[in-house]
Each structure stands twice: as C-alpha cells, then as structure tokens.
Design goal:
It is a single chain. The chain has two domains: about 230 residues, Hsp33 domain (3-Layer(bab) Sandwich); about 50 residues, CBS domain Like (Alpha-Beta Complex), CATH 3.90.1280.10. The chain has about 290 residues and is of the alpha+beta class. Helix 1 packs across helix 2, helix 5 crosses helix 7 and helix 9 packs antiparallel against helix 10.
Amino acid sequence: MNDYIVRGMTMDGFVKVAAIRSTNLVAEAARIHKTTPNATAAFGRALTAASMMGNMQKVENGSMTMQIKGGGPIGGIVCVSDSEGNVRGYVIEPNVPLLERYPGKLDVGATVGTDGTLTIIRDLQMKEPYVGSIELVTGEIGDDITAYFVQSEQIPTACALGVLIDRDCSVKVAGGYILQLLPGAPDEVIDKLEEGIRKAGAVTPMLEAGMTPEEILGQVCGDLGVLFMETCPVSYKCYCSRERVEGALISLGRKELTEIMEEGKPFPVECQFCDTVYTFTPDDFAEILNKV
C-alpha cells in the first residue's frame, strides 16, 4: 500500500481532520540515514507530523520546516515538507542507543528530550516566513505538536502519531492523525470528540491492525461522522540537484572558491537530506568561478 494523506471534516462542519499512512516514507528515511530503532521512531513521528502540516498549508510552492531540539541523545531533528505533504529531513545523531519505557516499548520522549524547543517555520510565499516556537512538553512529538497549535496558533488540536519498529529493526507501520476544532464548536461536539479519541486509543495498534487513514478517522470521530474531501499521495522526497549545489557553492564567494580549486583535489558535497554526494573537480570550480 502506498503512503497518502486524507483530509476532511466532521459531518457537522466543526472539526477539520487529517490522517496519514507514512510507512514507506519513514522506512525510506530510516534507510537513507541508517537510524537505529529509537532514532527511527522519533524521526518517523516528526516526518509524519510534518507531512500532514505541510499538506494543510495549500500554498503553491510553500513549505514548512519543523525543528526539534530537546537535549536528548538524538541531538535534534529537522523535517521539511512541501505543500503536498512530501517530506525530507535529517537527525543530528542517527545512532541512538536502545531506550525503552518498558520491554518492547521504545522511549521516544527520552530519545528527543524535553529541555528545548519545537519550532515551526512556514514559508507562505510572502516577504517573511511565519515562525512559531514553544518549549517541548513531553518529547513524544504528538503531544508537542498539540501544544504548538494551541499555544502558537490558538487552534485547539489533537495529534496522534505512531511508528512501529519490527523485530528486524525495519519499519512495520507508521502514521497518525490531526484533529482541529473550528471556531464556534459547541461543547457537545468537543465531548464526543474527546470520547472518540479515548475509545480509539493509541494510533499504533490501529495501524498494526491494518486500518486505513479513513478507518482511523472514522473510529476516532465516531458518531460525528467524517466527510472525506481530498486524498493526496505523499513520499520521502528530496529536491537536491547538482545545479542547486552549484548555486550554494557560488555563495561561498570568489576567494574561498579559488582556494578550493587551487588545492587541486576533488571536492565532495553531501546532501543532508538524502545523502547524495556531488563531486566537483578543479575544472568544475574554474567554470563556477567564471560564473561568479
């Protein structure tokens, strides 16, 4: 099954809903960055949330960047999503030792840490990007996303994320959902939503049972019902290219480019997001200098 995001709202029009299956994109991120299980779980949750949040923007050529720095052994997480929900990212330390809350349950909160911040940067194709930042709450990421929307954007939100690592350290399932109350939502709707979230329980068992994003939202929203409005395929997608790397090199300036060229050695540049290596020779730098 391919990864995708489904968006919609409850039948009464008071709750916006989104859910995602992100198993393949999380697995691809883990493969590229060679993350250990704890790092995969934390990174995967962040990528899953970033994908849904980027998809929410619906600004052509817009993007959303999520930065998490919690003081835990993973060091930090950076995820970037386009307006469709395609994501890329990296972690500072992919080789995190095994940390468990109890046998068989990875401790994502301890992996990320709570001594730090969650920062969201929204590029809405305006003069300046929107930047919001909060102190981390639990480091579990879902709780922190919920707190971010409430504190920074004043939107009552529920976010649930799950990444299940199999015994062979591969990604078995990954996904999640985001629910957001619209202005004027009556207490009755809030009560029904809270009851639905409680009855549905954690998102990981639902994913493991093979439930689709649509089925998960149906389970969580219960009697409120869901009107599905859009389905969008998503993937782990990097936009790097040799031309973009060359543009970054030009920004170094003539002096530094000349020094690199005069060393007479191949100069490799590695993309942080996909680990692709672009190698530039002294002749390449001579051509770049001609363009400066």
